[in-house]
Amino acid sequence: MKQKIKAALLASSLLLAPAVGLADTADGDALNSMTWDEVVDLAKGGEVNWFLWGGSDNINQYVSEYIGGRLKEEYGITLNRVGLSDTVEAVNIVLGEKESGVMDAGSVDMIWINGENFRTMKQGGLAYCGYTDILPNNAFVDWANPAIANDFGVPVEGCEVPWSKAQFAFAYDTARFDNPPRSIGELIDWVRENPGRFTYPAPPDFNGSVFVRHVFYHAAGGVDKLLGDFDQAKFDEVAAKTWDILNDMEPYLWREGKTYPASISAMEQLYANSEVDLTFNYEPSGVGLNIENGVFPPTTQGYGLSDGTIGNTNYTIIPFNSPNKAAALVLQNLLLSGEAQYQKARPDVWGAAPAIEVSRTSEAVQADFGTIVAHPNVVPADELAKAALPELQASWISAIEKGWLENVGQ
User: Fold this and answer.
1) 338 alpha-carbon distance from chain centroid
2) 10-49: buried (b, 16+ CB within 10 Å) or exposed (e) per residue?
3) What is the pLDDT of residues 151-180, one digit of tens each?
């Protein structure tokens, strides 16, 4: 089934690709030596195919309407948003094209990405690199920050551009009970005491995978023991404890763990329907949006964990064989602008934390950020940040996901 989905995505994406010969921006070295004005002139009137996770209506609307609208109005560039259920689908398209010899007329111009997918693209020579200094709004990025300069432990080195920051958070309905579990240890006990009232999306769903990593950290006795390069002996030790915890938990999950939600959207719907009592997301602001949209009950409250939750930075990347690199650079520069980052940070639009240093933007943009008032039911970002946990290097994550599928998912 996965192969059929990938084939369908490749076929549909090829329809978006411009005919060979109509685009002349595939030469990254030439672009890297251009001035920004020359890049913009080359991009005007073109198009850009952006592949990104499509499971959030508000994100899709922001990308298509606000970003797409500005691209069209200011540069005459048409933005084609291609929704994905999993980022790896786009990575596999690029990989398949490279293996087929498609070196300068690919169908993917940009991907929303991070973690193990970035590692795959960088190590596989699938990324266009060395261009970030061309972008005027790159000046807003704090590349001296290790959390920006490294993506799940992999040095960025000019191969992608940050877009947002995020940190995992839980949520519960205060009308159903008073004291939600405040640590992974408490959650494990709570699940047994409240059979059928909890579940999590099956990895490799992004949110399901990060939940499993929280349990992995708990089994290890803390993330500090897992930082650094992948250690097979340490992995085997901690993984055995993790699979035991999750398998012991399984009979007490929703539908006795015989099935798992396929996505975070499906899990949030279970919560909205009162089929489960807890939900979570790497985008804590989603609680406020779901309340305002009438999806979640207004008594839903977001919260963090006493033992911390995982946070990271996500990025956009341009494949090596994108035929519309100039248009993709214009798109990336727009995404980094103070105005676009502010729009994205608005609670009624998305509520995503900015990936830029707001203090480096204009006084007008800083003033706009100063007007943002978070939804009262969303856990404050500064509160979450007090107990932020780092992501592991990508090699750990791929091993954890594979291990879950083999030892728990079956």
Assistant:
1) 20
2) beebeebbeeeeebebbebeebbebeeeebbebbeebbbb
3) 998 999 999 999 999 999 999 999 999 999
In the structure, what pLDDT confidence band is assigned to residue 25 with cuts at 50, 70 and 90?
A: low
Structure tokens at 11: 């076929």
In CATH, which of 1.10.287.3510, 3.40.190.10, 1.10.10.10, 3.30.160.250 is domain 2-164+312-378? 3.40.190.10
Classified as helix, coil or strand, 212 is helix
pLDDT in tens, 31-41: 999 999 999 99
| Residue ranges, CATH 3.40.190.10, the chain | 2-164+312-378, 167-311+385-409
Task: Look at the domain 167-311+385-409 and name its fold.
Answer: D-Maltodextrin-Binding Protein; domain 2 (3.40.190)
Tell me the pLDDT tens digit for each residue of 188-236: 999 999 999 999 999 989 999 999 999 999 999 999 989 999 999 999 9
Distant-in-sequence, close-in-space partners of 247: CB < 8 Å, separation ≥ 6: 407, 408
Question: What one-letter code names the amino acid at 295?
Answer: V
Q: Do residues 378 and 167 make contact, with C-beta atoms less than 8 angstroms apart?
A: no
Cβ contact 321:102 at 8 Å: yes
